[in-house]
Specification:
Distance between the termini of chain B: 94 Å
Largest interface: A-B, 76 and 74 residues
Number of helices of chain A: 17
CATH class of the largest domain in chain B: Alpha Beta
Distance between the termini of chain A: 16 Å
Structural class of chain B: alpha+beta
Strand content of chain B: 15-25%
CATH topology of the largest domain in chain B: Alpha-Beta Plaits
CATH topology of chain A: Formate dehydrogenase/DMSO reductase fold
Order of helices and strands of chain A: HHHHHHHHHHHHHHHHH
Number of strands of chain A: 0
CATH architecture of the largest domain in chain B: 2-Layer Sandwich
Number of strands of chain B: 12
CATH architecture of chain A: Up-down Bundle
Radius of gyration of chain B: 27 Å
Order of helices and strands of chain B: HHHEEHEEHEEHEEEHHEHEE
Largest sheet of chain B: 4 strands, mixed
Shape of chain B: elongated
Strand content of chain A: under 5%
Strand order of the largest sheet of chain B: 10-2-12-11
Number of domains of chain A: 1
Structural class of chain A: mainly alpha
Number of domains of chain B: 2
Oligomer: heterodimer
CATH class of chain A: Mainly Alpha
Helix content of chain B: 25-40%
Chain lengths: ~425, ~325
Amino acid sequence: MSDPAATAPSPSVPEWRQYLRFAWNALSQSVEGGWKFYAWMTLLTAIFLVGANAWAVQVRDGMALTAMSDHVSWGLYIANFTFLVGLAAGGVMMVIPAYLYHDDQMHDIVIIGELLAIAAIIMSIMFVVCDLGRPDRFWHMMPLLGKFNFPVSMLTWDVIVLNGYLLINVHICGYLLYNRFRARQPVAKMYVPAVLLSIVWAISIHTVTAFLYCGLGGRPFWNTALLAPRFLASAFVSGPAFIIVAIQIIRWQTGRMFGEGAIRTLVGIIRITILISLLMVVSEIFVEFYTGGSHTGAAKYLYFGLHGHHELVPWIWTSIIATIVAMVLFMQPMVNRRPVILNTACFLAFAGLWIEKGMGMIIPAFVPSTLHEIVEYRPSLTEWKITAGIWALGFMIYTLLIKITINVHSRKLKDASGARTVTPDDALAMGDGSGLV
Amino acid sequence: MNDPAPAPPKTPCGGNCSCASAPKPDDDGSTRRAVLKGLGATLGVAAYAKALAPLTELTQQTSMDEFLQKHYKELTKEEITTVIQRLTKEAKEKYGADVTISDPKPQEGVKFGYALNLSICNGCRKCAEACHLENNHDRPSHQSYIRVFEMTKGSMDFEKGNVHYDHPVPQPDKYYMPVQCQQCEHPPCVDVCPVEATWKEKDGIVVVDYNWCIGCRYCEAACPYHARRFNWQKPQIPAAEINPDQGYLSNRIRPQGVMEKCTFCLHRTRNGRLPACLEACPTGARVFGDLNDPESEIRWVLENKRVFVLKEELGLKPQFFYFFDE
């Protein structure tokens, strides 16, 4: 183990300032790259700006620019919010094998999942903000400053768990990267408790988000105890599916081969979670249609249309077919040999669940309405622009976070004086030089 | 060592360029690169400013006083007077109307209840119209807190009901069911509100602080009676049609982006008058009064008629009752 003082900035500088300096350097150097990188980021920025502009106009002129109404009072924004909370929770499927089952290969790259959690949580919070009629009154929701209706309102629980999850993951990633940068061995007690907490917390964010909906007695479509388990099962498909593709892209971009074992583990997880997820869908469908009655209206509307209204039918069948095809592909042994099959399966599962847990879960609760009126909903251009903008920002954040990580690990990150902070020998001395963490 | 990098362009541009990194002057390629980055940063900042420009138009509409206004329950008497003065001025500026905004408090010991006689309601929708006018609702959307359902005789199922009927009433095989806020004893809309912008007053009326609501519409999702309405845009009402007799917690002109709901016309009922929907009813189907007063008409109805509440199984204990004659 090398002496940190030999390579690090002067020890007279307090640790927190060194950390901030590291964060600043890491961030500013992460925006350096080749033309492909600039093209990618410019594209994302352009999409984000279209969304930002649409949002600014929406704030000025009112939510009438969305297709929502007093009958369908939540739409595409809340649909995306729900899905993204799941995506954030899905990263935990790397953390559990890495830390609870001591899967070393997974441990090396677990940060890919933790960074995904950070990006996804930021996106989900942005979707909620874009759904607010009065974002200028956001401070009303801050504890102490405003009035925080805790613990009665489930939304306040969601505020706590989402922000908490964000902080936990920022701490874990920041701490590990900083120590890597300083070529120090991370101290277990500084981050392992946070990692263990993050596992419980990941479950909690999606459970609480489900409770937002399933606690409402006036909306039978949501008012089912199966909602939280369903949310978790589908999150543990979409999260790993995203990460599998992300690992391959990072491999391709860095030209380094890693994570094959981790991908296999994640495929193994998806094989189970996608089955559980589909089983619960079947279970819901059975109860809805076998029991019948007027509470079945929402499910009828979703799957087959109701009284000549069919807006969601193409969505949900696309979702069901995509998810089933993905499930069949994941079950094939060749999914571990043929990246094309694997990535197709991941894409189909991701898209299928985005629909199922988004539009397929939010909208039917409002159609028919609580007084059985049928008012349909099709997202407006404003809603699509804002949605695309937030996704673009999410991809930007994730790209930069991954780049920071790569810079730190490939020892490209320099301190402000331009000198390399760590020599390759130092890193080798740490004994874990092969992986990302 | 580690002095800050020599003066890079400080403004972050969202990441499509390296506007924050230091140019290296000793290298021609790097200098050109730095110039390009500077250009990119400038363009980026300009693009952001342009994209978010509509927000600045909004800040001209929203005063700092409004932005910083406290929750209704935390306002002192003097503060509420100031707020009402501001709102009166805004009504004049934005709508050209001279209005009087009062803040009537619940009467001691009074608990309001409402009952509706389904045997004689003829579905004329005069109540919905009166609500529309009384409560300064948005004109183009023809908003009202009351929806009248034409129901099929022999069924209480709203699925067989219709709000969009357009023919002479009453039809012989139909009955009519107006629905508005049921002023639940256990209102789920109040429970779910993340910022306590809605609450149940002592006289049983569930109100909204229009200046505190953040517009998340969770209450609208939670209400089983479709009683809540959202201001999807700034309400449009011609000056001549504005009802100048306004209550702070009831029918004053609502801001854009907040929730609203039926308040049993508290600006009237707390001053001894009847709700507008009741006064407009030509059949006498509506009965309003103090549930705590054993001599009241509503108590007589509850004790002598066949009374029921909507969706009783949800356990929300509505204070709005429906009944049939013998």
